[in-house]
Amino acid sequence: MNVITVEEVRKIDKKTLESISEENLITKVGEKLFETLIEIFNLSFDEKIVIIAGPGNNGADSLALGLHLIKYNPVIICFNRNKYFTQKLEKEKANLLYDFNYKTLEKVISKATLIIDGLFGTGLNKDVSGLFYDIIKLVNKAQAFVFSIDIPSGINGDNGLVCGAAVKANFTAIIEYYKVGNLVNDALDYHGVSKVIKVGLEKPDSNRFLLPIPKLEKRKYNSHKYDYGSVLFIGGKMIGATVMASLAALRSGSGLVSLLSESKSIASWEIITFNNNEFDKALAKKDAICFGPGLGLNDDSNLEVLEKIYSYPLVIDADGLYYLKKLDKPNPNIVITPHFGEVAKLLDTIVEKITKAPLESIKEVTNKYKCTVVLKGPCTIIAFGNEIYFSPFGNPGMATAGSGDVLSGIITSFLGRGLSPLESAKRGVYIHSLAGKIAKEKYGEESLIATDIINALPEAFQEINKFRR
Fold this sequence. Notes:
CATH superfamily of the largest domain: Ribokinase
Low-confidence stretches: none
Number of helices: 17
Number of strands: 19
Shape: elongated
Strand content: 15-25%
Oligomer: single chain
């Protein structure tokens, strides 16, 4: 499924309107919104419905939906001046409010049991203020089910950030395609449950997609451990991070997992361990290497190590990114897995610039290093060249120490089997999120720890294998 920008929304709308009138398109949207609403909400005649019709296209969509709700006598707070739909509603003797003050709005919204949010759409690009700000605050204070159209009002359509204030929806009906602002930064905290509704808009010219379910190849009976990759994890003093990454690779199907660190300690009976004096021996027959988890900073010897392994398929994470910046060499055979703060350091900028322009930032990193980038966040973004994938499938419980190390281990496992860096990243991110979901269901978000994600990998792979090739 495509993910599009606000500018692409405008182009798609314009193209669609070459073959259908605006009134007929909005009417169709209203029909689909009504069908979706009655699927997820048990409407009754006791319902106190408030429709907030803003001045733009979302407002018109909410008016079209309102025509299907006439028998429930909704109150329509109307900022919209679309004559086609307002006249239809007036003909039906709908309860349209054109003139109101704060006290009127407070009285109406506070009594609502269902609120249709059509105040703003994806085109909002400045902070909400004045009466609009007050309305959003009243909606969030109300004890009502909130149904947002396309995007909760107050969320920026291109970066998912709150513009001063934003509606906290229980359900968001996303029209035709995900927008970037439906997924990244603050978005997931405001959308509630989301569903894409199809209304027949034109197809976008976009290389951005929602991350698909991976289809894994079936393991062969006539095979041995080296068919499934021999991978090495290079760690430092914080050995726990390296061990977790190594265990994640084992649980992700790697045939042979090795660990190189300052001390030759047993991490697991299945992991081969080397100390730093055995560097050349550790590199023998390796298909992929993970460099970074638990490594430590400000050690020139680590930069020398990175230079020696830079020709291998690599996953570089955590402290390894510090040395990547020092090395400053493009390499299409690597996957890097930074969070927003680490991207800011790679680009010599501040985190706020990354959050305001996540797509531009990730493109800048891919252009600079020519590599696959996994930008970790509430919605993880994967990019290589012009291809970008979005994964909103994680959960807040995964914001815990070691979770990123587990992700690096999973990606390294796939990279060691000869998959491309991009494909390894896509599979790794999806399976990591699925394992996190399974762990959350068992332990809850508060108690989830990184090793729970590792322990959930077998069940995650069993789930994925239902779609096996």
